[in-house]
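Below is a filled-in request sheet from our internal design queue. Each sheet records the structural input a requester submitted and the sequence that came back. We keep these sheets so that new team members can see what a complete request looks like end to end.

REQUESTER: design group, bay 2
PRIORITY: normal
MODE: inverse folding
CHAIN LENGTH: 409
BACKBONE (tokenized):
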């Protein structure tokens, strides 16, 4: 396999998580009588440009189908994050009724709903039919398509260019990064701004966040690598913000490389220098991640086995992709975690891929009163625990496995 940025032949393994089904391929009851499709989950690192990337076995159409079940609006903290973003962009770039905001991977309209409240014209681009339908139900105009240079060019030719383009947690999901970014260069107005948010590879490595790795994430990005991708395709990063979301993310601000509307801020050099000091342009930074993943997996499995031996019942909260990676890598099934609760009705009544643990309504916690509740989306612990804090009344303890196993009394 060759690097999807610079075409260097890839030789170095970052981590090998064995095999797993796609993390959002939830099963129905009839599906339980049929085999599942598993793909290797092996991640490589390029020794030339330092892009970390999955070894590709499944194409995007297999991962982002019509029944895609990830809906952004079920996280209140993510909604609040999105509302703050819209307010900040409106003030910083003077967006108004004459502007146009376009979100790529608009999902269920979680962000554009706030753009509409400011009476700023907007539309979204979203390839998955299920989330596109949810966005349209909010009154948001959606172009149902995978985004790239062709789509960007067609929309620009139709007079739909953008003053602000938004790309939250989608850059990592794109198999052809160059084509994707060229689409931004085509659709963005000459003085327009594009923002990209994605989990920061530096934080992923330093915090042992191996469960962030799954097939839908084709790439794992640093600022340095992202700048290279954007610059190759006509965009320039002029600012960057460090965020707490998803265990540590970056928000990049980009403009046309020749526009010069916004001077390059000091934050770009500061974050890039921090990456270089951490050694992200040398192989040693990437060594040892396999051992970190194996330690977390072993500790988690041993904990669940000990709970069973002690007669403690265990459930989980959040049928998230992170959880699928952790459960499948550890070989956990319903004998160790009896069920997982989730607020998303489109997941309830189904089963997690691979582990086949049943997904039920959050009310099952009160009905079953498990002794231990595993918080699978550990990055949302501060949001989730207050919602189920009453479980402490029957003696339950909350548990997270990443970046290390710990009980939260």
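RETURNED SEQUENCE:
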């Amino acid at each position: 396999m060759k690097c999807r940025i610079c075409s260097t032949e890839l030789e170095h393994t970052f981590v090998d998580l064995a095999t797993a089904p796609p993390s959002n391929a939830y099963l129905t009851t009839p599906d339980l009588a049929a085999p599942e499709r598993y793909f290797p989950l092996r991640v490589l690192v390029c020794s030339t440009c330092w892009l970390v990337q999955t070894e590709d076995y499944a194409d995007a159409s297999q991962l982002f189908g019509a029944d895609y079940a990830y809906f952004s609006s079920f996280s209140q903290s993510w909604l609040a994050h999105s509302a703050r973003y819209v307010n900040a962009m409106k003030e910083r770039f003077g967006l108004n009724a004459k502007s146009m905001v376009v979100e790529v991977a608009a999902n269920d309209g979680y962000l554009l709903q706030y753009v509409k409240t400011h009476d700023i014209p907007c539309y979204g681009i979203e390839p998955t039919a299920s989330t596109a339908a949810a966005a349209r139900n909010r009154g948001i105009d959606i172009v149902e398509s995978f985004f790239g240079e062709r789509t960007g060019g067609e929309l620009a030719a139709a007079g739909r260019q953008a003053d602000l383009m938004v790309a939250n947690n989608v850059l990592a999901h794109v198999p052809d990064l160059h084509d994707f970014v060229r689409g931004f260069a085509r659709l963005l107005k000459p003085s327009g701004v594009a923002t990209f948010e994605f989990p920061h590879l530096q934080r992923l490595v330093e915090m042992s966040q191996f469960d962030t790795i799954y097939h839908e994430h084709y790439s794992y990005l640093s600022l340095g690598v992202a700048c290279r991708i954007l610059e190759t395709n006509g965009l320039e990063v002029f600012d960057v913000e460090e965020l707490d979301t998803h265990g540590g993310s970056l928000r990049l601000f980009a403009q046309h490389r020749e526009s010069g509307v916004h001077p390059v801020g000091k934050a770009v050099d500061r974050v890039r220098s921090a990456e270089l000091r951490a050694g992200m342009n040398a192989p040693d930074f990437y060594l040892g991640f396999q051992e970190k993943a194996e330690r977390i997996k072993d500790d988690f499995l041993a904990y669940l086995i000990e709970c069973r031996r002690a007669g403690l019942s265990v459930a989980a909260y959040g049928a998230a992709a992170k959880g699928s990676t952790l459960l499948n890598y550890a070989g956990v099934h319903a004998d160790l975690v009896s069920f997982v609760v989730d607020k998303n009705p489109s997941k309830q009544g189904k089963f997690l891929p691979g582990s086949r643990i049943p997904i039920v309504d959050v009310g099952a916690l009160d009905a079953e009163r498990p002794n231990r509740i595993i918080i699978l989306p550990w990055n949302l612990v501060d949001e989730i625990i207050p919602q189920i804090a009453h479980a402490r009344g029957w003696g339950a303890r909350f548990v997270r496995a990443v970046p290390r196993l710990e009980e939260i009394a």
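SHEET NOTES:
- The chain has a mean pLDDT of 95.
- The first helix runs from residue 60 to 63.
FILED BY: M.R.
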